[in-house]
């Protein structure tokens, strides 16, 4: 039974993708906290605040993903072990330099975007509009943050 009345055998596949996204977001969120707590140097105030803004946003999204899985009739993962097993992202074991933090977050966001775009494609094919709407918002937000981080790195991807 799914509360969205999608009635497609593909719902399971959608929820598996969402569960991978949930696990990956948990690792991403914890990494942001680690960077928020341990950032040092001249950009401390700037990035301490920015990382907090990003992990608060990630916490809201984590809740939304888990509840979407429930709406689709499945149970979201809820243990750290399951998150580490299912996450496409690797957790942080050492605190990198400020520059490397941004590089790593850009890679992580790219990975999250990949999962989301795969999931949007499957969900759209099966008229799962709620999942598509949710993921479209997540995608647009991360694309904007990526642009900001690339700009901070002085990497210009615009076509002249
Ligand atoms: Fe804090």
What is this structure's SSE topology?
Elements: H1 11-38, H2 44-71, H3 80-86, H4 98-125, H5 129-152
Bound molecules: fe (ii) ion.
Describe this structure in words.
By secondary structure, the chain is mainly α. The chain has a single domain, classed as Ferritin (Up-down Bundle). It has helices at 11-38, 44-71, 80-86, 98-125, 129-152. The chain binds fe (ii) ion. Fe (ii) ion binds next to loops.
Give a quick set of tags describing it.
single chain; 160 residues; mainly alpha; Ferritin; binds fe (ii) ion
* Structural class by helix and strand composition: mainly alpha
* Form type: globular
CATH topology: Ferritin
Q: What about the largest sheet?
A: none
Bound molecules: fe (ii) ion
Instruction: Indicate the radius of gyration in whole angstroms.
Output: 17 Å
Total DSSP helices: 5
Helix content bin = over 70%
Count of folded domains: 1
Distance between the termini: 52 Å
Order of helices and strands: HHHHH
Which whole number gives the mean pLDDT?
95
Q: Indicate the CATH class.
A: Mainly Alpha
In the CATH hierarchy, what is the architecture at level 2?
A: Up-down Bundle
The number of E-state strands comes to 0
Q: Which band does the percent of strand residues land in?
A: under 5%
CATH superfamily: Ferritin, core subunit, four-helix bundle
Low-confidence stretches: none
């Amino acid at each position: 039974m799914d509360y969205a009345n999608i009635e497609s055998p593909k719902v399971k596949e959608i929820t598996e993708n969402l569960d991978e996204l949930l696990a990956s977001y948990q690792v991403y969120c914890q990494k942001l906290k680690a960077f928020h707590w341990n950032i040092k140097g001249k950009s401390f105030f700037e990035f301490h605040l920015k990382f907090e803004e990003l992990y608060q946003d990630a916490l809201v999204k984590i809740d939304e993903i888990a509840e979407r899985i429930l709406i689709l009739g499945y149970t979201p993962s809820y243990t750290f072990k399951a998150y580490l097993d299912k996450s496409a992202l690797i957790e942080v074991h050492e605190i990198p330099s400020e520059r490397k933090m941004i590089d790593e977050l850009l890679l992580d966001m790219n990975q999250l975007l990949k999962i989301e775009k795969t999931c949007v494609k499957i969900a759209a094919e099966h008229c799962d509009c709620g999942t598509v709407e949710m993921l479209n918002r997540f995608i647009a937000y991360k694309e904007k943050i990526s642009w900001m981080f690339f700009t901070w790195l002085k990497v210009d991807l615009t076509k002249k």
